[in-house]
Amino acid sequence: MKNNQNLVSFSPEKGVYLYFADSKMTDIIDIDVEPGIRSIVLSGPNANRNRLSRNVKLRNIFKQFPDVEELVVQEDIMDIDISNFMFPNVRNVDSNNPYFLSCQYLVRLIVVNKILKNVFCIKPDEQIQPLYDINIIDDYAFEGCQLASFFNNDTSFNTIHTINHHAFDGSSFFDIPSKNGLKRVGNIVFGVDDDAEEIEFPEDAKCVLPTDIDYKNVKRAVIRNIKNVNGINKLPETIVVADTEFSKNNMFGIYRYLNTTNVSCIEASPSSGFASKDGILYSGDMSCLILCPIKKTGDIIVPEGVTCINDFAFYGTRIDSVTFPSSLRTIRKDAFRQSKIRKIDFGPGIKKIGGYANNIFADCHNLTHVEFPPQVTDIGHSAFFNCRSLKSVTMHEGISTIGRRAFDWCEKLKSVTLPKSIKYAGELSFSCVQELRTPHLFSGLPYAFLSDISVSPVKKLIVGDNEFIVPASLSYKTLYRLNQQCSSGYFCKSDLHDLYYGAISTELKQDTAYYIYKQSPGADAKLEKYLRRCAKQIALRYIKENKDDEFAEFIGFKLLSKAAIKQLLQAANEADKPSIVAYLLTQTQDKPSSKFTL
Q1: Contacts with 574 (C-beta within 8 Å, 6 or more apart), sequence order
Q2: Among 42, 134, 530, 535, which is disulfide-ready with 559 (CB 3.0 to 4.6 Å)?
Q3: Using 50, 70 and 90 to split pLDDT, how confident is the model at 158?
Q4: What is the helix, strand, coil percentage profile of the chain, to 5?
């Protein structure tokens, strides 16, 4: 071992020199091989004691060792990143490492995937070793490969599911003639014809394309078999559905196969069983809106006659608004989830916004206001879950049921007014709401409104003309009992007023009681008596939590005895709070100061 130009070198065998970045010897960043060496060992010192701890990083080292025909990978090597041109004539990899295969090529194993990293510079007339069960082709794996027929008549590549973007750069595969605009052999697509404006995916092969493939001048792609494009992460801006069989089985499941991230328009051939209007895919009879491409923008008017919007139909789309027809009856799960929608016109037809279909408008972060027309009776489970910008909701008479978590995690939705028609609300449907107005109590109300995820310890519940301050979270027993009362329609002011007794924690019980007391000090003798008992605990908590302003306000209500104040003096001294000490000293005088600023 020796230090060479600030690099630490190591010779695993005669004539081979590996250079490490530092004395830790974890990264091999340079190499020298004497002429005539046919086999080299990739390893650092004490390989068996440094298992899987070293990386070979030679991709950007522009040296070439044409005499080397074999690489030996020892057990201390974790990863290898080399160019085919560094070892153009390697035809065997001998691995003593669980992460690499012994074969003609450099193949790395990660969990269940086999990654083809290097095939080296195979010549046009060479015989090659069959390569089975490869799952991923890495960047530059075929750089310098001159054997254009590498994939010919070989089914061993049917297991490939990912081809990295630069996998075929520098290879001869781009010289093969194109068919229907695609340069491909079997199911492996290398690229597209430079002059093609339209490509056609084959009906008989499930194609695998390089990730983020450059479509160059291609404007449209014809799809003969929808299932065969499953897994393609990028399609041209316009796709033409020409599959004549898919619609006969389950046209509603098309979203599982088409990734429309890059698509702004979907067309349909007359024989496909589908229809298209304004770049959106419908069932052949135009009764169901099947799929809107993700890059679709602007205002969408769903045509009359459409009765159903499919699962995931607008998932992640960039549309601004949608207007529903009077014919619409059903919106299926996740239909508009994660879309950029800003405005919804529900129209005069739809009565159930989801029913049991979940997450219809969930995660729509551009929605700020929603108004439900009078014919709407149901809002489904998680219908507007996590709509973080939603500030207001207008509910007209007619709504009777609100599903579980319908408005959960709508952080800016602070106040909601419910109509007289309300009969049930599911768990956590108003978890972030701070003020809930309802004409009457109803089943599910406590579970819908009260939650430990509230940003405030208390909430305001207004029932008819009666206003109550209630804990944000109740004990399970109190919550259950309250829901029983709400379900029966039983309403007793004292029960709601005294809910602070059922708070889930002592601190929350105290905080709620104090909030109520501040509204009208001295109005409730029972409440005041409770606060006097726990006043010292509350004040000590404010000192500990550095809530000086809250502490001063609380002391001003004169709920503490002089003995308690003396104990607080000691606590304030120990907490190094001189301003609080000074204030408390004024309170121990015969005539306490009523004016003091911390």
Answers
A1: none
A2: 535
A3: confident
A4: 20, 25, 55
Do 399 and 376 touch, CB atoms closer than 8 A? yes
Q: What is the mean pLDDT of residues 344-356?
A: 93
Helix (H, G, I), strand (E, B) or coil at 556: helix
| 3-class state of residue 499 by DSSP | helix
pLDDT confidence of residue 2:
45
How many CB atoms lie under 10 A from the CB of residue 209? 25
The amino acid that residue 591 corresponds to is: K
Q: How far is CA 473 from the centre of its chain?
A: 28
**Residue that has been written with the tokens 């049991």 in this structure:** 356
Kindly compute the dihedral angle of the four CA atoms of residues 17, 12, 25, 137, in this order, to the nearest 10 degrees. Answer: 80
| Amino acid at the residue 516 | I
Cα 33 to chain centroid distance, Å, stands at 48
3-state SS, residue 42:
strand
E strands, 186-224, in order:
188-192, 198-201, 220-223
The pairing of strands 136-137 and 113-118 is parallel
Say whether 238 sits in a helix, a strand or coil. Answer: strand
CATH architecture, range 351-517: Alpha-Beta Horseshoe (3.80)
In one letter, which amino acid is 287? S
51 sits in the region (left: phi over 0; alpha: psi -120 to 50; else beta) called: beta
DSSP for 59-85, please give it.
TT-----TT--EEEE-TTEEEEE--TT
Contact at 8 Å (CB) between 387 and 366?
Answer: no
Buried b / exposed e across 370-400, counting CB within 10 Å, b at 16+? bebbebbbbbbbbbbbbbeebeebebeebbe
Amino acid letter, 199: I
Instruction: Answer for the pair 413, 384: CB distance below 8 angstroms, yes or no.
Output: no
The answer to whether 421 touches 398, Cβ cutoff 8 Å, is: yes
Q: What is the pLDDT of residues 524-583, one digit of tens each?
A: 999 999 999 999 999 999 999 999 899 989 999 999 998 899 899 999 999 898 888 888
- The residues near 174 (Cβ < 8 Å, ≥ 6 apart) are 168, 183, 190, 191
Q: Are 354 and 376 in contact (CB under 8 A)?
A: no
Q: Which residue has the tokens 């009906």?
A: 203
507 token code pair = 């601190």
Say how far apart CA 199 and CA 221 lie, in whole Å.
5
What is residue 179's predicted lDDT score, i.e. its pLDDT?
93
In the chain, domain spans = 219-347, 351-517, 520-587
Distance CA 222, CA 210 (A): 18
Task: Tell the burial category of 433 from Cβ atoms under 10 Å away from its Cβ (0-12, 13-18, 19+).
Answer: buried
